[in-house]
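#structure-requests
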Amino acid sequence: MAGLRLLVGSYTATGGGNATGISFVDGGVAATVAVLDDPSFLAVSGDRVYAVSETAEGSVSAFRRSGAALEHLWTASAGGNAPCHVQVDPSGALVVTNYVSGTVTAVSLAAAESFAASVAASDGVVGARGSAGAVVVPASAIATVALPGRPGPVASGPGASGPAASGPVADRQDGPHAHQSVPTPDGTLLVADLGGDTLHEFRVEMSGAAGAFGGAGAAGDAGAGAGALSLVPVRVHDVAPGAGPRHMTWFDGDLIVAGELDGRVHRLRRDDTGVLRVIASVDTFDGPTGDSLLSHIEADDTGRVTVAVRGRDVIVVLDASDGGLTVVGSAPCGGAWPRHFARVPGFVLVANERSDAIAVLPVGDDGVPGEAVAQIAVGTPTCVVPV
């Protein structure tokens, strides 16, 4: 694994973890490159690195990467409590999902970058700075919606709400819990609601000159020309009761969903009305679910689906190539509590949260991993991204 370079998100002491921020791994050795509270999920786009801070106040930060160094650019409100996922949407928005509050936030990247540049150019005279001098993106560049429950319309603006979403797993499905967002092939956005066993579909809309800001007197706020950003509801899709949809991936136009709470992987396909319907589901292990919780899931171009199962601490491989879902096999994850993983040629890199390490597992011809060939020490890893 010579030449392997990774960015790793983790829990810090704030969240009961052992890390001090974002780590960079080079040559099998990890070092902290950005001090941040609970950067539990990362997204990388070009030389930009985005990290949530999974705290009650909830924020997302942007960095510029040069080699192993991260330069902080700006911070924005996540619009909720405990942001647990971030992704760069094709619409040009940075989308953050907030687990505890059940809210979804979109940040206009053009507006955020423009604002940060204007603050830097004015040497801080224009704009707002938070703790440690960080540039804070104004609220006018951000849109937040709350996931509603059933029945009732999808919330359509900041602070909007509906009847509390709930599912049959009382201690985990007491209300909406936004876990992940993924773009769709149709140009929309899907958000997994673990608490309501639903997938909420939105359209990200931006109007006006998203990079323009007001001049004098506009310190800390975007001007009227900044352009409006909104998350427009499209429809709501149901998954099986008690599934607890967590992470999602696409294959051959179908959506593959990891059910955190039911231990199953579900395959959904759009019908003629545009609604995603479950067409196949399969157990990832035998026996009662108990404390076995699915986490991350990915699919490759051949239809090989990989999913991690915490508690049982295994990596399960499925085949989706024939239009259904079948289990190919499973293997130990090389540690305890596999929260996330990344695939690189010939290997799967597993972030074993409770082992304080990333396990390097070789992948066989059938996609099923073998025993770990290396362990990379990282405090409480929760997200691993090859760079």
